[in-house]
Hints:
Blueprint: H1 2-11, E1 18-25, E2 28-33, E3 40-43, E4 65-68, E5 72-79, E6 84-88, E7 93-97, E8 103-108, E9 113-119, E10 131-137, H2 139-145
Protein name: Cytochrome c oxidase subunit 2
Main location: mitochondrion
GO cellular component, one term: mitochondrial inner membrane
Amino acid sequence: FPSLRLLYLLDEINEPLITLKTIGHQWYWSYEYSDFMNIEFDSYMIPTNEMNMNNFRLLDVDNRVILPMNSQIRILVTAADVIHSWTIPALGVKIDSTPGRLNQTNFFINRPGLFYGQCSEICGANHSFMPIVIESIPTNFFIKWY
């Protein structure tokens, strides 16, 4: 009984500051900031022939997810085609995105920086080419970005 209570409390989300909706497609991610109007974009991996010297091969994207640090963040995850897995190892976040289902989790980023991840589900031939990049910035810069 105590472990079930703990699992329930871990899944409970206490008033998140921002809700981010993530949709997995073959072979890219779509993001929607649900709390703001008209902030939606697709995030594709940067092809090797278009990379700069400071990009990471197979990990960098054309549109990064910008999130404020020191904020409770809720993420809603779904898929449009097959099962994907939205994974950021440095944040301890891994959640499956399943077509027809809306999964949710939360996390708290306590430092600025770039956090890299990839689809970790065997969702097809190019699943390893679905990188995720989160850029954590101070809240005042996030407000200016918005």
